Amino acid sequence: MPISTMTELKPSLYASVDEVETPALLVDLDTMEANIQDYASFATENDVRLRSHIKTHKNAEIAHLQNEYSGGGGIVCQTLGEAEVMAKNGIHDIYLSYQVVGRPKLERLVWLAQKLDRFTTTVDGPGNIAPLQTVAADHYVTIDVILEVDVGLHRTGVPLGESALQMARLIQEQSHLNFCGLLAYEAHVKSKAETRTEYERYCTEAMDRTQETVELLEAEGIPVEEVKVGGTATSKYSGEHPAVTEINPGMYPFMDVGELEHRPFDVDKDDCAATIISTVISKPTADRAVVDAGSKTLSMDKPQLPVPKYREDITYVNASEEHGWLDTSDSEKSVDVGDRIEFIVPHVCATINLHDTIVGVRDGRVEELWDVQARGKVK
Ligand SMILES: Cc1ncc(COP(=O)(O)O)c(C=O)c1O
After folding, report:
1. In Å, what is the CA distance from 141 to each residue of 27, 75, 107?
2. Is 80 exceeded by the pLDDT of residue 3?
3. Taking the CB of the first residue and of the last residue of the chain, which one, N or C, has fewer CB atoms within 10 A?
């Protein structure tokens, strides 16, 4: 006979953060709003559109908030499923920064494009251009497309120069596709730049090469209305370049240990809005404590480990699924079973994806409970 239990109680609104059951994903709302304002101000000052990537939080209310701050710049999604969730929740201007392949998905894409005020998708070769044209033509719809160019990440994207020109021509020849411009995602810069000067240099270099391709296309009579770039680390450098019309950062409302490590000159602990609140469940030895936040709570898909937000004297050293090992050998204050410890997350996108709820906190009280609505929408 099954019994019903009260396993997953959501925190109560206005409850003290100290009462939130752990482990839980917290977002400090003042910090998040300051980060959103910071990128929105940058966009205004540099006359670029801020179109936020919502793959990080997968929640429509935060997307609406970002849209308000950016003056209606629209959003970016990485999966069609995310885009469907956002559309269902009232977002009407979506760019899908991903190549969609396969007839059933293309049918969904075309259907969605018809419902929205503006929908744009991404292509980078004949294998994803031709099927999109076929489905669009079958449904008498014209789809706005962006051509992804490879500016150094060597993931998706056609090489700059002559190859990009050929592909832009191919798109122009399609009766039901409308060429809008380029996606030049410059995330490779993160792995080679160590200083602000290097970020500036590598982003400028990637955008100079992109601009040459824009000029090549325009000389051939192909207008390039949009040049979109990523991401939290690079977009404030690339966004200063005259070639760029739009920045697509994702992690910037929250930040994480990755951003802290990559750009200590731009980001500090106080900028990190997303944390995991955990509880010490065991203190087996003087130099070791164990918290209830392991790799099923804090994603470990990147090399970084969680960093305590408010304590310099303890270190998160290892994780199993439900356990986090802390080295307390240098701890000045005692660490006891029942203590609550807050960690900045190693990789915020993958961490939010592990949770059902984002707990928004202001002045120590729970002010928002956001569902991670597009969690699991990988199709
Ligand atoms: C194409 C594209 N644009 C923008 C972003 C956002 O970058 P970030 O999460 O570094 O802000 C991503 C993230 O993966 C991306 O793939």
Report:
1. 41, 22, 11
2. no
3. N
pLDDT 10s digits, 175-187:
999 999 999 999 9
Question: Which pLDDT tens digit goes with each residue over 340-367?
Answer: 999 999 999 999 999 999 999 999 999 9
- All domains of the chain, ordered by start, with CATH? 17-26+268-371 (2.40.37.20), 30-254 (3.20.20.10)
Q: Name residues contacting ligand 1 (CB within 6 A).
A: 53, 56, 97, 185, 230-233, 248-251
Residue 137's pLDDT is what?
98
Q: How far is the CA of 349 from the centre of ligand 1 (A)?
A: 10
- Phi, psi angle pair for 132, to nearest 5°: -65, -45
Atom number in ligand 1 closest to CA 232: 11
Write out pLDDT tens, residues 287-306.
Answer: 999 999 999 999 999 999 99
Q: In whole angstroms, what is the distance from residue 266 CA to residue 49 CA? A: 21
Q: Report the pLDDT value the prediction gives residue 257, as an integer from 0 to 100.
A: 98
Ligand 1 atom with the shortest distance to the CA of 349: 9
Q: Based on the number of CB atoms within 10 Å of its own CB, is 192 exposed (0-12), middle (13-18) or buried (19 or more)?
A: exposed
| pLDDT (mean) for 307-315 | 96
The pLDDT score that the predictor gives to residue 11 is: 85
Nearest CA to ligand 1 atom 10: 231
Residue 173 alpha carbon to ligand 1 centre in Å: 30
Residue with tokens 């205004």: 44
Residue 124 Cα, ligand 1 centroid: separation in angstroms?
17
pLDDT digits over 237-263, tens only?
999 999 999 999 999 999 999 999 999
| Residue 252 alpha carbon, nearest atom of ligand 1 | 11
Distance in Å, CA 249 to ligand 1 centroid: 6
- What is the C-alpha separation between 216 and 234, in angstroms, rounded? 25
Percent of the chain with pLDDT strictly greater than 90: 96
Tokens of 328: 């307390």
Q: Tell me the mean pLDDT in the region 320-337.
A: 94
